Every structure is written in C-alpha cells, then in structure tokens.
Amino acid sequence: MPGVRGGCCWFGGSLLVLLVAISLHQELWGPEELPRMAKDLKTLREEYKQLNKSCFILGASGETGKELLKQIVQSQLFGKVTVVGRRKLNFEDEAYKDVAQEVVDFEKLEEYSSAFQGHDVGFCCLGTTKAKSGEAGFIRVDHDYVLQSAQLAKAGGCQHFSLESSKGADKSSSFLYLRVKGEVEAEVEELGFERFSIFRPAVLMVDRQEYRGSEWMTRKLLTPIAYLFPTAYTVPIPTLVRAMLNNVMIQSDKKVELLENKAIHTLGKMEGGEMEGGKC
Predict the structure, then answer these.
(1) What domain range is 108 assigned to?
(2) Is 177 among the catalytic positions?
(3) What is the model's pLDDT at position 201?
(4) What is the mean pLDDT of residues 138-152?
(5) Residue 1 lies in a domain
(6) Which of 66, 145, 154, 181 is catalytic?
(7) Looking at the 3D structure of the chain, how many domains does it have?
C-alpha cells in the first residue's frame, strides 16, 4: 500500500533525523566535568609510579577487567596488583608473573576479608546480565557482590574506589538494569571512601568471547552512528580503561566523581600535554 509505505518511510526518516540531532547535541554540548591538571600526564605517571601503590581488580575475567589488567601490567603503574575472583586465572604471558590472585567465594565474601586488605586503589568491573543469570542472579552480582566487596575494601584501608557503572544509571529508574546500577552507586558512596570514582560508559564496543545477541545487534546498529558521533552512544573498552587509569593519577578535590561517556572519551584519549579546566 503506497500510503502505508510512504508513512513508514516518513516515520523512519524522522526518527533518523531525531537520533542524529540528539547525537550531535550530546557530542557538542554533553556534560564533561574533569579534574584540573597542573602537570602533564607523563609527569603524573612517573610520579605516581614512585608512590609504589597497590591495587586490586574485581571482574578481571570480563572484557573490561581483562583490558584493565593488561594496561596496568604494561604501564607498571602499581607496585602490587591483585586479582580478586571466583577462580584462578591462567596467564601465559611472563609479564603477568607478579600478579597476585585471591580466590574467593562471593556467596561467603565476609570470610575472605583478608583478600581486600592493604590495597590503596580498588577497581570494580563486576557485572552480568539478566539474560545470563536471571533477575535474582543479576541483582546478586551487580549489587550484592559489588557492595559487599566495597565494604570489605573500605574496612581494609582502600582509599580510592573506581566503579564501572552504566550510562543512565538511576536508582529511581523503572528499568531493572539502570535501577540496580544507580542503587549500588548510591550505597557505595555512603561508605565514605576518600575518593570514589563512578564511570558511566555507554555501549561498550568490543567483540565479546561470550555471545550476547542483543548487545551484538546494538553494536551493529550503533557502529555507523559511533563513526559520526563517537562520544554520544558508544565507547571502546580500551578508551574506558585508559580513562580509569588516567583518572587515578590526576588529583581531585572531589570525594565523589561522576564521569559520563563524553568525559570518559576525553580522559581516555589523553596521552600527554596539559589539560586545563576539563579540556585537552
């Protein structure tokens, strides 16, 4: 039917124009609050290494955690690196020989408090999906495990806790995923870390080893938009990880830092030079 086809084309075209307009707005005028840098990143990196700090990583078997561990090992930013997880990881590369591993039972996490003691910085990349683990399993991993780990880390002396959350996280959201992410953000904040950094990436651009049909389709649909508007709806995992590590080195007077997707892009693309007032 010509009228129906014409109406569908008009609707599809209008939707595309609206999506492009929203993308352009986010690309050019989206929030981007970053700490000020008094020194270039190279200097900050070398000074941070001299502090010989220790860190732990939760979720090192996942895509973000795996890349985070890789970049930490390559940069030699920390004097001691510990992976905390449900099973021991096998590392074939000699570069990982000094990485410590603490195997814990997340269902009895209170019995493994020693795994969280003596770390200056904690990175939490724990996460699953409702499709994989069911609603109860998703809440248990993305809320309970994260919060309990943060509590033990705080009690163990951790000063800076970095949490991988999600774009749109909101404890009052009607969507389970975003509500749980928002709830755990708020509850970890209440623990009172000396510094708490929340990263809210949009769709993570990565070819997962574990197939997730909906994520695969979303990435395919967003790929052309990401090419035109790279900071609006997507972020490559290496960029997210560089942002997390660069943020560690940059001093901030904020106890709680909320980094949305555009700020993650900006911070993750910094390689050197100075940044003033949040601009590279």
Answers:
(1) 31-268
(2) yes
(3) 96
(4) 98
(5) no
(6) 181
(7) 1
